[in-house]
Amino acid sequence: MTDEYSTHTTLGFLHSRRSIRGYLPRDVPDALLHPLLQAARAAPSGANLQPGRFIHVAGTRRERLSAALLDDVRGGAPQQEDYGYFPTPMPMHLRKRQVAAAQALYGALGVDRGDTDGRARQFENNYRFFDAPVALVVTIDAHFGAGGYMDLGMSLHGLQLAASAMGLGSCAIGALASYPGTVRRVLELPDTQHVVCGIALGWPDPAAPINRTTTYRAPLHEYFRRIS
């Protein structure tokens, strides 16, 4: 990142934002969380439909949700996402990015490639929301098409940028969408609410090695061209 992006500017937050998976045991008050969500809702939205809902899961309900999801993972329950995420089949150039991201994550933790148990323990932290002070479950009405997911994605990015601007960290948790039936059952949601992801949010722990994970971003020439 160049010096021009290192200050507290929009470009600076875009370039410096990273997924935070280690948090301090410090609460995030509603007086701070609510403005972040309102900022997220200011994202662009086709026809101003503003798709998606954010559910703050706390207390015993959060404990029940994490326990039920961990039971699914450890018991080998089939994954039945409400929507498709990864391309099928996965092209090799994307597979390489996926592998590189995993290597960066587990490398920051000192977990060897062959340490299956260590990797499994770390992956389970997804379902504990990485012990972040705030656990959000993000849903969308089942009747929305791809455009609704695009709008919701912009809102999610807005939330994460707003969190960065306030000194908070966040991590989108796609793994939560692997067991939508369990999420709906524990949270008593209707089948018409599709589970998109989870969000962990809180104050980053500067001493957590996992927060030093850095991932590669494709150079401009790979995804941009000009046609005259």
From TrEMBL:
Pfam families: Nitroreductase. Belongs to the nitroreductase family. This is Nitroreductase. Keywords: Oxidoreductase. GO terms for molecular function: oxidoreductase activity. The lineage of its organism: Bacteria, Pseudomonadati, Pseudomonadota, Betaproteobacteria, Burkholderiales. InterPro entries: Nitroreductase (IPR029479), Nitroreductase-like (IPR000415). Residues 16-203 form the Nitroreductase domain.
